Amino acid sequence: MAGAFSPLESIIIVGGGSAGWMTAAALANTLGESCQITVVESEAIGTVGVGEATIPPIRHFNQRLGIDEATFVKETGGSYKLGIEFVDWARLGHSYFHPFGQHGAEFDSVPFYHFWMQESLAGRVNGPIDDFSMGWAMAKAGKFAHPLPDRRQIQSTYDYAYHFDAVLYAAFLRKYAEARGVTRIEGKVVDAALDAENGAIESVQLENGGTLKAEFFVDCSGFRGLLIEGALEAGYDNWQQWLPCDRAVAAPSPKQTDVAPYTRSTAKAAGWQWRIPLQHRTGNGYVHCGEFVSEDEATETLLSSLEGEALAEPRMLRFVTGRRRKFWHKNCVAIGLSAGFMEPLESTSLHLIQYGILRLLALFPDKEMSPLLAQEYNAQTAAEYERIRDFLILHYKATSRDDAELWRYCSSMAIPDSLQYKIDHFRNYGLLVSDERELFKNPSWIAVYLGQDIVPKRAPALAAMRSGAVPVANRMSAISAAMDSAVAAMPRHSEFLAQHCPSPHA
């Protein structure tokens, strides 16, 4: 006879911020009032709050919660994001765009990029593949409109995400969660008591001497990993040999007159600088390697390149890129920075929170707390971190820059076999090989490979075999014309925001 089902009755989330309140909102939305959910956070502990750029899956998270997009963008001072412009990464004076969505439009059974590659290698196309990205055409023109669902239209070939204030997003989700029964307790967790028999967490102790008990705990305590590492000693894999940046200095600057619908990442001598345009300010930061630049020098580099004066004192963050060896251990799951840190180069921080939550819901335990659930959760999450890790490493490895020590190190460093295998396929045959579970799909890899000068020796074989049956040049010309016409008809991004979702924070 099957064992009796015994549902969880209490969950404590240690830490607020984006991770804590995204978790609380999703659990409350799914579990209703069948389980008591408590968030313990301290106003005395600051949140990182600089991860303001996202990738398209965040839209599905908000939709799952039933959040209206226009309301969300207004309340968080948000703007729309069509992709990321990378400046000076492959070499000084060069830039490329990583768009959300595809390049070109499919007009044959052979993928568009196969034909583009064939035409480019033959010298019949002179510009970069960016020229066939709707996302880039809109971004450089400062335009935005929602994609069309009709796959026959060129306006269906792009996707979008958001820029927003992470602190305002946490506040927005706190209001959402508390309206659905989540309890917030002000307090600083300083210790955890473990069960003497099985080593699981029994309770957490607050700085004021109070004790809180629960059956399940979610560690959203940030880099500290107060529960997952401090109490349960889950272990940590350090990836700094591949991703050497270990700190960031951040400072806001005034909002842009015309809010750009894309993130910009500019490579510097010892790292890279982000620019994230919001409705009420611009987020800026310099991610760098402390081995190659001092904190004072990094701060000066950031402040001297801002578009306007800094609106607050620069803030320094230190981190170690990598992941926990166990994300779910005993009766505790780490979500957010407590689970690991992937530098914000491709805006994956909130995505990893999102999928940590969704994976927890998919494998949600009862009081039995089966170790099989934790085993599967850990396997899936580890694989996701490693796939994202490889994509980030590609940006550093594929550079011809030799003007600074960091870039000389990165261009010559050994990389994971999993990444080298992918690069070898693309460099030799123009082929993309990837796990079907990849977060970053083929267009993303194409953008970075080509943008950072990994040019195939030949185009995939099918393109040449189909060229005689397909008027490739005519089709590509028609795509360019359709893109120009579509972009010309779109409103400016700032006008779109003003009409549909003006923020009271602006």
Keywords:
506 residues, alpha+beta, 21 strands
**What is the residue-mean pLDDT, rounded to a whole number?**
95
Widest sheet, order of strands:
5-4-14-15-16-13-17
What's the Cα radius of gyration? 24 Å
Class from secondary-structure proportions: alpha+beta
- β-strand number: 21
Which stretches of 5+ consecutive residues score pLDDT under 50? Answer: none
Q: Which percent range describes the beta-strand content? A: 15-25%
Global outline? globular
The main sheet comes to: 7 strands, mixed
- What distance separates the N and C termini? 61 Å
Helical content class: 25-40%
The number of helical segments is: 15
Short description:
Helices cover 34% and strands 19% of the residues. It has 15 helices and 21 strands.
Describe the structure.
The model has no long low-confidence stretch (mean pLDDT 95). This protein has 506 residues and is α+β, with helices and mostly antiparallel strands. It has helices spanning 17-31, 57-64, 69-75, 112-121, 134-141, 166-178, 295-304, 349-362, 371-397, 405-412, 417-429, 442-451, 461-466, 472-488, 493-500, and strands at 10-14, 36-41, 79-81, 83-87, 95-99, 161-163, 183-186, 189-194, 201-206, 211-213, 216-219, 236-238, 247-253, 263-268, 271-277, 282-288, 315-318, 322-324, 328-329, 332-334, 340-341. Helices cover 34% and strands 19% of the residues. It has a seven-stranded mixed β-sheet with strand order 5-4-14-15-16-13-17.
